Amino acid sequence: MNIDIIAPGRIKERYLRDAIDEYSKRLQRFCKLTIIEVADEKTPEHATPGEDELIKRKEGERIAKHLKDGAYVIALAIDGQELSSERFAAKLEDLALHGESHIQFVIGGSLGLDPAILKRANWRLSFSPMTFPHQLMRVILLEQVYRAFKINAHEPYHK
Asked: What span, in angstroms and rounded, lies between the C-alpha atoms of 140 and 5?
């Protein structure tokens, strides 16, 4: 299975890069993982709603360039479906059984995802009604993808 994670911005914090590297290494035996970073837009401190929409649109255009025809796109969105780790694992397994061999997860920037990206997505996933920094979300997503593969392989990791 091919899994892409597409997200705006570079990870500057060493501890987050280390965690991403660790989960990327662990995932090598389960899938081909690609992390695609697109340029993010700086958000002015007191941006107007119009400026916010323009920023999301620019980031969305950059993300859209990496979305592949035939890939199953999962947008991380606060209004998405919340699943337990077991149900998330079952969802990934079900996608694989139905021939989905390329899954692209899309994480939005600090303002969220452009509506065009949300519309393009095959499915929306939410990890919580809480808001997380998009840099940290990469680590959380990688950990849950790894956990899902371990659950589906009936290997110990999850209790």
From this structure: 12
Closest CA to 104 of 64, 71, 146: 71
99 vs 83: CA distance, rounded Å: 22
**pLDDT tens by residue, the chain, 159 residues:** 999 999 999 999 999 999 999 999 999 999 999 999 999 988 888 889 999 999 999 999 999 999 999 999 999 999 999 999 999 999 999 999 999 999 999 999 989 999 999 999 999 999 999 888 889 999 999 999 999 999 999 998 755
Extract the tokens encoding 91: 């969802």
Which parts of 68-116 are beta strand (E)?
72-82, 102-106
Q: Model-level pTM? A: 0.94
Phi, psi angle pair for 136, to nearest 5°: -65, -30
Query: β-strand 72-82 against 102-106: which pairing, if any?
Result: parallel
Contacts of 154 (CB under 8 A, 6+ apart): none
Helices 14-27 and 134-152, packing angle to 10 deg: 20
Three-point CA angle 75, 125, 117, nearest 5° = 20
Contact in structure between 23 and 33 (CB atoms under 8 Å):
no
